UniProtKB/TrEMBL annotation:
Transmembrane segments: none annotated. SUPFAM superfamilies: Concanavalin A-like lectins/glucanases, Galactose-binding domain-like. Coiled coil: none annotated. This is Polysaccharide lyase family 7 protein. Gene3D superfamilies: 2.60.120.200, Galactose-binding domain-like. It comes from the Bacteria.
């Protein structure tokens, strides 16, 4: 709900059939019931006055009338103490609308209670305005067109005050409102990623070395606020999503052969007195541990167990290169001191319409174990009929929990994929009891983004990995 506080610039009292509009006190205004609405008979087509008071904010449920001075009159049934009004406009997120408000006791003679006013032009939800405090039965909207035409198009009008017509609030339409600068995902399209996502506990690793220090560039959590990169980390101008782009052939981290544009969880939240990690594996407040780790390790850590939830779409994967590497990108991880309890992959082969999802679990100092969730991870896998297409929006949840098994605490890994149609695919819970992570010299952190798994493409300027996130959140005990 938007709120405008404006002076009407008119005298408070006007003679109305021999009686004056009385100024009254109403310190706690509530929404008032509207009995009916009429206009001057000039409404367009099927967009009659009754639709402006039906409690609906659908674009087809509106009053529309063309021309300056067209009126919409609301009948409150009997006199009430009026204090405020609220108006929601058709295409109110695209244009500003001009109007004034008048009140009456008898429905014949009206006096102004709000002079000419312009809406904010930023939302299709209710914008509330202060009006002259008066006692009246009728409130009239006088439409003065919009900044682009003479049309007056009102989705909904509400009246607030005190009296016998007080009712429970019917909603201001903000839950489904269109807002200027916001996409269908509720994200700003004109803001850096940190204004759409809470990145105060993340840093990002990029596939470049622009400062020439021989290492990949990393933007720490404090510097990440308000920051973006037009090549590798930016806001999508249509959806507002957070875009990660990893171009093979770029700079890699010390222990990897693959490039990444990827966030790394930083539980310290910008407190640089806490180190990123302690290299001997001792937990600290920047990282978390399993609930099966020793109590002293849990005390040192920033959290115990954890869940990462993301909504995203994979926009592009590589199509050129070695058969065993083409089309692979990691979209989420849990990283430990040296190993990875989970790497979540999306893979789409060049000949397939849809992509597969699987994960790798790396026990300490052992070979990876793979679990297929959707489709087949193989280098010559057939097209997965239930696979996920490029640009298809889906969600994943990676969760580590400590679960009791007949008196034995076990660290369990849960992976869930939710399709855009609401269907849910859950991998079989994975028991990590024998994986070597439940001791006092290891720690965990989440990672999310685009971690390319193909370093063999010969056309990196066109053949790269790109992933767009629409939601990202992490929680720990």
């Amino acid at each position: 709900m938007q709120r405008l506080t404006l002076a009407c610039g008119t005298a408070a009292l006007a003679l109305m059939g021999g009686a004056a509009l009385a100024q009254t006190a109403c310190t706690d205004p509530a929404q008032l019931r509207v009995v009916s609405a009429v206009d001057d008979g000039s409404f367009d087509g099927s967009y009659g006055p009754e639709y402006a008071v039906d409690g609906m904010f659908d674009p087809d449920s509106r009053w529309s009338s063309k021309g300056a001075g067209k009126t919409l009159t609301l009948d409150l049934g009997e006199a009430q103490q009026l204090r405020e009004a609220g108006l929601a406009f058709y295409k109110g997120d695209e244009r500003r609308n001009m109007f004034r408000l008048e009140a009456s006791m008898d429905g014949e003679t009206f006096a102004p209670v709000l002079g000419e006013t312009t809406s904010q032009g930023g939302t299709t939800a209710i914008e509330r305005v202060d009006i002259e405090d008066v006692e009246a039965r009728y409130l009239r909207v006088v439409g003065l067109g919009n900044e682009g035409s003479e049309w007056n198009s009102v989705l909904e009008v509400q009246v607030y005050g005190c009296g016998s017509g007080e009712m429970a609030a019917s909603g201001d339409g903000s839950d489904g409102a269109r807002v200027a600068g916001l996409s269908a995902y509720g994200l700003r399209t004109d803001a850096p990623p940190s204004e759409n996502f809470d990145l105060t506990r993340w840093k990002i690793t990029l596939p470049v070395d622009r400062d020439g220090n021989g290492k990949v560039d990393e933007i720490e959590e404090n510097d990440l606020q308000g920051w973006s990169d037009p090549d590798f980390f930016y806001t999508d101008p249509v959806t507002g999503g957070m875009v990660f782009r990893a171009v093979p052939g770029g700079v890699t981290t010390q222990n990897s052969s693959y490039v990444r544009s990827e966030l790394r969880e930083m539980m310290r939240g910008g407190d640089e007195s806490i180190s990123t990690r302690i290299d001997d594996g001792t937990p600290n407040k920047n990282n978390w541990v399993f609930g099966t780790a020793p109590a002293e390790a849990q005390e040192l850590a920033g959290g115990v167990d954890g869940t990462m939830r993301a909504t995203l779409a994979v926009n592009q994967v590589t199509r050129i290169g070695e058969r065993g590497k083409v089309g692979r990108v990691i979209i989420g991880q849990i990283h430990a001191k040296d190993d990875e309890p989970i790497r979540l992959y999306y893979r789409k082969l060049p000949t397939n319409k849809f992509g597969s999802i699987y994960f790798a679990h790396e026990p300490v100092e052992q070979d990876d174990l793979y679990v297929e969730v959707i489709g087949d991870r193989g280098d010559m896998a057939p097209n997965p009929e239930d696979g996920i297409a490029l640009d298809e929006v889906f969600s994943y949840e990676i969760r580590v929990s400590t679960e009791d098994d007949d008196g034995t605490a076990r660290p369990m890994l849960h992976v869930t994929i939710t399709r855009d149609d609401g269907s849910v695919i859950e991998a079989e819970p994975f028991d990590m009891s024998d994986s070597g992570y439940s001791h006092g010299k290891d720690f965990m952190y989440f990672k999310a983004g685009a971690y390319s798994q193909n370093n063999t493409t010969t056309w990196p300027e066109r053949d790269f990995d790109q992933v767009t996130f629409y939601k990202l959140e992490v929680e720990h005990e």
